[in-house]
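Structural prep section.
Before we set up the soaks we want a predicted structure of the protein with iron/sulfur cluster in place, mainly to decide which crystallisation condition to try first. Input record follows.
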Amino acid sequence: MEWEKQSEILLNRVPFFVRKMVRRKVEEYAVSVGAQTVTQEHVHAAKQKGRPVGPAVDPNDRFSVIRRIENIPADQESIPMYAVEACQADGIDCPMSVAEGHRLTEQIHQILEKSGLTDFITNSVSGPLLPHHRFKVSISSCPNSCSQAQIKDVGIIAQLKPKLNNGECSQCGQCVEACREGAIALQDEDPGICLDAGQCVYCGVCIRACPTDALDEEEGCGYALYLGGRLGRRPRLGEKAADLLSTRQLLAVFERIVSFYTTHAQPGERFSHVVERLGLQDVAAGIELPFRP
Ligand code: SF4
Ligand code: SF4
Ligand code: SF4
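Run finished without errors. Recording the tokens verbatim:
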């Protein structure tokens, strides 16, 4: 539905986390009065009618604010205090994807469900529970990190490591052209190219660009792990804690992260705060990371 410029300006004054819901409510109102374009009058009228408002805040319900922000009905008792977000790779068949995200998302969900994390956070936080109290996990199916893995408590990014095969390179230079990191160069000696591991982000683009078998995948995809990111009042970028973990290693480490969090968090602390307070080295030792980058 179209919005007049002034009505868009009014909408943009609404906090971003409820903007989508407000847009929907105002459009519902505009349609109900037979309009095809949203004007500022519709925004004001919808506001006066109290339409862009979720369930009322109940001081006896600690989930009240979350219900209101996320429009969760009052009779839904169980509200998870964790969130797992994946990039859209599987849904849009993204050509950059180096791993299937659905299965991993499911496995991470299962670990969180069994972990008792919702009860832990509910008991650890005093007062109303807010969306930012949630333990946030993000999964991206390639290093472009569209799901913003670096600003979540735990960020997981799929990677593909190129393997160089001797005697196969025609020195066409297509991989050099395709690599946005400048991590590949041609060389006279076998295998015909050289890879700068310090520059490589393991995106796998060069492998797809190569017309011969000179570049291959090394043992399928792996995962980079970022720990300790968040947005909010005091934002913090997650720190890279590992590269190229296998799926088995990643899931085992993830279970240890949840357990480490529940045993080391002070009341009300998010995992990101725990990483900040203890430092990545101690956290990495505590969760027994198989290796560091
Ligand atoms: S993170 Fe990569 S795979 Fe996922 S949607 Fe973005 S570009 Fe595609
Ligand atoms: S995997 Fe990506 S970053 Fe690494 S060399 Fe290939 S194209 Fe460059
Ligand atoms: S590795 Fe493949 S793409 Fe790169 S120069 Fe050799 S043949 Fe061409």
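Observations: Residues 247-264 form the longest helix (18 residues).
Flagged for discussion at group meeting.
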